[in-house]
Write a structure and sequence with these properties.
This protein has 115 residues and is α+β, with helices and mostly antiparallel strands. 34% of the residues lie in helices and 16% in strands. The chain has a 4-stranded mixed β-sheet, with helices on both faces. The chain starts with a strand and ends in an 11-residue tail after the last strand.
Length: 115
């Protein structure tokens, strides 16, 4: 079963996760979600399979998080997903999916749970 890793190639955690996948010998696809953005359905599917909410994968140290004042707002799940689609820097990475399971692979070694 192929693994899909949604990542940003310049992210050190993503690079480490991709190395672990390559070393495993299992088939995988690396998707740079800045070049090939998430669709709303795909992001919702990944979150559902991982048992995570949008808030669980929100990058709170990004400038856009502060710029949008997200720390001071209560935002519905659907609205937060829409913001993440518009501003991919808000999404923690890497997100990894294999079959019916998904995870936020932070630290990268946690990806071994899917191998």
């Amino acid at each position: 079963m192929k693994i899909t890793i949604y990542q940003k190639p310049t992210c050190s955690t993503c690079r480490e996760a991709v190395k672990l996948l390559a070393a495993s010998g299992q088939p995988y696809e690396a998707v740079n979600y800045y070049e090939t953005p998430f669709t709303k359905a795909t992001l919702q599917e990944v979150l559902k399979k991982a048992g995570l909410s949008a808030k669980d994968v929100l990058r709170t140290k990004e400038g856009i998080y502060k710029e949008l004042g997200l720390a001071k707002k209560q935002i519905a799940e659907a609205a937060l997903i829409d913001l993440m689609l518009k501003h991919p820097d808000l999404i923690q990475r890497p997100l990894v999916i294999k079959g019916t399971r998904a995870m936020l692979a932070r630290p990268a070694e946690t990806i071994k749970q899917l191998l």
